[in-house]
């Protein structure tokens, strides 16, 4: 895979800040809408509550064992935007090459502007691997991303997640105990899952999306499976179909369905696995006839996009080019002009040589940043409601300032470590993905 890192953008002329937009809505200065007015509060107000906080995944269930963030000291909670910006810059300057800051595409603008690299989760984990000189890797993303960076970084490098409560509701939908239970039930249907048929294929190959815990990646590695990203899912499924008669795909049903459908797999051969139902809610016959068993997981951010939004965009903006992320529901992907990963979306916009109107179906922080970076185009989010990923939103600049100043003081806060029994098979699953050599999808 050819990886292109996006350099940290200069502060754009157009205000890309979702935080500012939400505060304008809350103050009444803007007539736009947000999905949760308490997004304007500090995320520390929600760290002790059993939910993901305000935003598009707030209704999802947070696992009881998920790490919780300790109280952020008052000097960070009470500092204004300019003071935090100054403190982050000062701490980074003091630390120099000893630290590298990674910012996910969906991260808020006030954090991304301090990132040495901006990208999707896999690009950032690879960037961490390349910075062997950095003692500390501060990952401004969510928990599974920091775990992946720990898998790929050196043993002496500390991966730090500024707010431990920044999980991912989709990743948390595939719990390792549920997946182990599913595997056991599948072995009752298909027999020994290690035995190959006359064509050299086992009954089931497990495939996990990058957006899953290290425990799930380890499970996949132990059982002959592989990891995929939204950029290479088709290549990975081809790899899996060469080795197995069917695929168990988790956690995102939409990425699995959209990819397999594009490869010609009929919808009636893609049963859903509901972890709370016996045999996942399917019959033995349905499972025996399946090609892809889809885990009942989804992204609350991408589930917000609808066909009605696309129809409205087309009615109001004739000639609009609609690009959505493959985590969106199938009907939305089918109705769009194109579907692709965050990197694909960015490259598609960068490659447009004439002024174009783009309606984008992905997280609003990225869409607003793209609109600011490419002012020659009109770029807007398909969802008119300002509703960022609530888990990603927990990385407030206050947490970034705190972890950097802790590092300056010689302490290493919020270190994310994957134990060797999980890390070794998880790396095998990642290495299989790299060996599959997926191409970068060309943009039209
Ligand atoms: S956008 Fe969706 S998949 Fe990505 S971190 Fe947020 S909840 Fe998870």
Automatic annotation (TrEMBL):
Keywords: 4Fe-4S, Cytoplasm, Iron, Iron-sulfur, Metal-binding, Pyridine nucleotide biosynthesis, Transferase
Biochemical pathway: Cofactor biosynthesis; NAD(+) biosynthesis; quinolinate from iminoaspartate: step 1/1
Residue ranges the record marks as coiled coil: none
Pfam families named in the record: NadA
Transmembrane helix listed as a keyword: no
Residue numbers binding [4Fe-4S] cluster: 168, 299, 389
Main location class: cytoplasm
Cofactor: [4Fe-4S] cluster
Gene3D superfamilies listed in its UniProt record: NadA-like
Compartmental location: Cytoplasm
Entries under InterPro entries matching the protein: NadA, NadA_sf, Quinolinate_synth_A_type3
Family listed: Belongs to the quinolinate synthase family. Type 3 subfamily.
NCBIfam families on file: nadA, PRK09375.2-4, PRK09375.2-5
Protein name: Quinolinate synthase
């Amino acid at each position: 895979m050819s990886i292109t890192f996006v350099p940290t953008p200069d502060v754009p002329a157009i205000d890309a800040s979702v935080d500012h937009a939400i505060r304008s809505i809350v103050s009444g200065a803007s007539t736009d809408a947000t999905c949760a007015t308490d997004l304007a509060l500090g995320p520390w107000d929600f760290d002790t509550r059993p939910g993901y906080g305000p935003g598009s995944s707030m209704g999802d269930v947070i696992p009881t064992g998920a790490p919780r963030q300790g109280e952020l000291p008052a000097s960070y909670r009470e500092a204004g935007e300019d003071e935090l910006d100054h403190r982050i810059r000062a701490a980074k300057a003091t630390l120099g090459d000893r630290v590298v800051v990674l910012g996910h595409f969906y991260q808020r603008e006030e954090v991304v502007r301090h990132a040495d690299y901006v990208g999707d989760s896999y690009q950032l984990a690879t960037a961490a691997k390349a910075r062997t000189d950095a003692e500390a890797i501060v990952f401004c993303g969510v928990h599974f991303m920091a775990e992946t960076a720990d898998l790929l970084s050196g043993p002496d490098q500390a991966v730090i997640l500024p707010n431990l409560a920044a999980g991912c509701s989709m990743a948390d939908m595939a719990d390792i105990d549920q997946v182990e239970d599913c595997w056991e039930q599948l072995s009752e249907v298909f027999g020994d899952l290690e035995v190959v048929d006359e064509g050299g294929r086992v009954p089931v190959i497990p495939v996990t999306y990058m957006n899953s815990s290290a425990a799930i990646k380890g499970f996949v590695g132990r059982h002959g499976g592989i990891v995929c990203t939204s950029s290479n899912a088709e290549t990975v499924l081809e790899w899996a179909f060469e080795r197995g008669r069917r695929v168990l795909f988790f956690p995102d049903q939409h990425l699995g369905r959209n990819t397999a459908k594009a490869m010609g797999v009929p919808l009636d051969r893609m049963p859903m696995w509901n972890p709370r139902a016996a045999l996942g809610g399917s019959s033995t016959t349905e499972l025996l006839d399946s090609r892809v068993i889809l885990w009942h997981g989804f992204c609350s951010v991408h589930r917000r996009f609808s066909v009605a939004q696309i129809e409205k965009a087309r009615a109001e903006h004739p000639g609009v080019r609609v690009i959505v992320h493959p985590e969106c529901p199938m009907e939305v992907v089918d109705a769009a002009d194109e579907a692709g990963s965050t990197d694909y979306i960015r490259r598609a916009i960068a490659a447009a040589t004439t002024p174009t109107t783009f309606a984008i179906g992905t997280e609003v922080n990225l869409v607003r940043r793209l609109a600011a970076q490419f002012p020659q185009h009109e770029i807007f989010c398909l969802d008119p409601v300002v509703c960022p990923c609530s888990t990603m939103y927990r990385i407030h600049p206050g947490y970034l300032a705190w972890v950097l100043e802790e590092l300056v003081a010689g302490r290493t806060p919020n270190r994310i470590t994957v134990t060797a029994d999980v890390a070794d098979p998880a790396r095998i699953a990642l290495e299989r993905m790299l060996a599959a050599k997926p191409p970068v999808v060309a943009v039209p």
